[in-house]
Structures are given as structure tokens and as C-alpha cells.
Design brief:
The chain is built from three helices and seven strands. The chain is an alpha+beta fold. The chain starts with a strand and ends with a strand.
Length: 104
């Protein structure tokens, strides 16, 4: 796979939950995230390409019935690779709320 290089501010992962159809759609255009998801979920449902060679993004569709897979992949390690440094911010006013700060 060859990936098109995106500027850091253009890289994204989007998770859509469509309750009516009972599916979760995961869209990613960050190379490391696409590779992680491909290892865990297999080939994407849809590949976005520029020309015949370069991938620009990928999309996976998961049924609600795939609860084991969904709970396995919906965690920080899947979407945030080792290149990003994460600092957890503890807030006293919101005890059950976790906020993370990414340092690039």
C-alpha cells in the first residue's frame, strides 16, 4: 500500500454510529491508523484512492452484532499511534471526565 501524505492538521479519524441501520462507520486518512485497523479488522469496506496507486483514506462498516470486535477496537491504542505524545489532564470539577492533550 502506498499512502498519500496528508498534513498533520488534515489527518482525521471519524466514527459514525448510525442507530437506524445498526452500524458503526470508521473513516480514517492517517496512515498508521489505517494500518492498525487493517490488522485488526481486515480489508476496509471502502478504499479512497487517488489514481490507481495512492490511498487517501479507508472506511470500515461494523454491524452492532459484532460487539466483541467493536469493544476491542474502540480504544485509544487503535487510533493514536506511538508517534503522538499524550498527556492526561486531570480536572477536579469533572471527576468522571477524562481529557487528553496531544503534543506533536
Amino acid at each position: 500500500m502506498k499512502f498519500e501524505k496528508h498534513l498533520l492538521e488534515e489527518q482525521e479519524v471519524t466514527i459514525n454510529i448510525i442507530y437506524l441501520e445498526e452500524i458503526i462507520i470508521i473513516y480514517a486518512n492517517r496512515k498508521e491508523v489505517i494500518q492498525n485497523l487493517t490488522e485488526q479488522l481486515g480489508k476496509p469496506t471502502k478504499k479512497y484512492k487517488r489514481g490507481k496507486t495512492y490511498w487517501t483514506a479507508a472506511e470500515w462498516r461494523l454491524d452492532f452484532s459484532q460487539k466483541d470486535i467493536i469493544s476491542k477496537i474502540l480504544n485509544n491504542e487503535t487510533f493514536i499511534d506511538e508517534k503522538l505524545k499524550i498527556k492526561k489532564i486531570n480536572r477536579k470539577e469533572k471527576e468522571d471526565f477524562k481529557q487528553i492533550k496531544l503534543e506533536l
